[in-house]
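2024-03-11 09:14:02 DEBUG pipeline.ingest accepted 1 chain
2024-03-11 09:14:02 DEBUG pipeline.ingest length=373
2024-03-11 09:14:03 DEBUG pipeline.predict start
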Amino acid sequence: MEPHDDTLTVSVRDPRDLLAYVPYRLGFRPRDSAVVVSLRPPRSRVGLVVRVDLADLLDVRRGRPLARTVAHHLARDGAERIVVVAYADRVDDRVREALDVLDDELAVTAPVTARWAVTATGWSNPDCDDPTCCPPGGHPLAELDASPVAAELVLAGVSVAASRDHAYALPVADEPARRSARRAAGRWSTTHGRPPLTADARSAGLAAWRAALDLVVTGADVPAPAAGRVLAALEDSTVRDAALLCLVPDAGDHPERLAAADGPGLVGCEPATVDALARIIGPRGEAPEADLVEPVRRLLTTLAAHAAGTRRAPVLTLLGFLAWWTGDGGLARARVDAALAVDGGHRLAVLLSQMLDAGMPPGWVRAEHALLR
């Protein structure tokens, strides 16, 4: 299950607009999936969008519990109405059965006011037998690409990947660059030690992060040795948390204070530093600012391209955190799962995985939802 949280006013009077919007919201064109769209008051604002595999819905043991979980998330989202869209090669009994499983559980939350299907040949109402309304094979898919919503999103520079794998793929540096990064990481660890680091080593690690981030902000490439030093430093959880503090507007020297505090983590930190970190991860956390988030995302992507083994886990986890914080639950899940695949005990990755399982949105999203109710 992949929740994607964002808010956009889309006309649902014409289903083409909503069907055109869904792939842009997900970031990829779904396949063999059901997508559930929450419509919130006022004016049927598009709220939570959740994608699930058709095969999971059809599983005898997991299907209905999964559908109930989706219904729970939409209830928390404040759904007033619900639209369900199936994506498959064709509409058949399997697709209708999966939609029925969803309908049975979603009805407890809000009425399902429309069911649609997007197939290899067109889009249609899977329950409609009237050829004048839903012609054989469905309405042309070109109608979706030509909708006003699709045109607006394209003009805004929003793109859609051909599949989820394409959308979530990370670049990989060439072998000489990865080897250079590994050697630099090893040298850094030899000099500064392994986690938990001393305060001086943590400060040096944060300085390496800051220097690499400055390169990204100016548009310069991060050399492989610099990437390796940052990768080694991020293995320490306090350095990682200090790097997260760089995402707080007007953070000042709070990241440096956290890195230099007496003891790991938040032990010995000043209350103001703890408060600054709560602006990201707290229940009343602030919405991300693109000018701060995007350079960090680019740096982490570069680091991931150079990382190997368990050193990938902190970077993938931070990428997962950014995805969660910006409301992209599907991407967050992919990154966190990748982190756990290389280090199943990574504490932040485990915590994020539990939060995603529980459908817990970031604090700023929860605050917005409270205002809409």
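2024-03-11 09:14:41 DEBUG pipeline.report The longest strand covers residues 45-53.
2024-03-11 09:14:41 DEBUG pipeline.predict end
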